[in-house]
Design goal:
It is built from six helices and three strands, in the order H-H-H-E-H-E-E-H-H. The relative contact order is 0.09. A three-stranded mixed beta sheet has the order 1-2-3. The model has no long low-confidence stretch (mean pLDDT about 80). By secondary structure, the chain is an alpha+beta fold. The protein has helices spanning about 1-5, 10-20, 25-30, 45-50, 100-120, 140-150, and strands spanning about 35-45, 75-80, 85-90.
Length: about 150
């Protein structure tokens, strides 16, 4: 719900921070700390690969490290769906993190995903949330009551 509440899926943040010409806003935004984590969901490539063999064997993903070895972020996490599987790539510097630390983080991430999947597959979890509707004043409690009334009228 928090992610869904971000206006225009966060598109305005980059423009506000990096492209805004208002000196006061630019000054304020430039003082904010840079993100240390980059998370990039690249999308679902199953549809692309079935239409064209050009992307069928995407062995290499684009790295966010420069040719000089400088990274744009301390940790970069990228994901895509291909061959009906979710693949997540973790990129980090061995000068900053131990491989077992990143492995533990990845395992915790996998465990959280599995919990989320189990929750979504459980009976009763397919209910609506306020962000499914355009009425901004609709709370989860009001929505649950409305759905309950609709179910009893059937």
């Amino acid at each position: 719900e928090q992610l869904r509440a971000v206006p225009k899926r966060g598109m305005g943040y980059g423009m506000l921070r990096y492209l805004n010409r208002d000196a006061e806003i630019h000054n304020y935004m430039s003082k904010l700390p840079e993100a240390e984590l980059s998370f990039n969901y690249l999308g679902q490539f199953d549809r692309v690969t079935s239409a064209s063999g050009d992307f069928a064997n995407m062995a290499e993903w684009k790295s966010d490290a420069s040719q000089q070895g400088q990274r744009s972020h301390v940790l970069a996490v990228s994901g895509l769906i291909g061959d009906n599987r979710l693949e997540i790539r973790w990129e980090y510097s061995k000068n900053l993190h131990r491989p077992d630390t990143i492995e533990k983080l990845a395992q915790d991430y996998l465990q959280a995903l599995r919990k989320l999947i189990l929750h979504c597959q459980s009976p009763g979890s397919g209910s609506y949330t306020p962000s499914d509707f355009s009425a901004r004043s609709l709370s989860q409690n009001k929505l649950d009551k409305l759905v309950s009334k609709l179910k009893t009228k059937r």
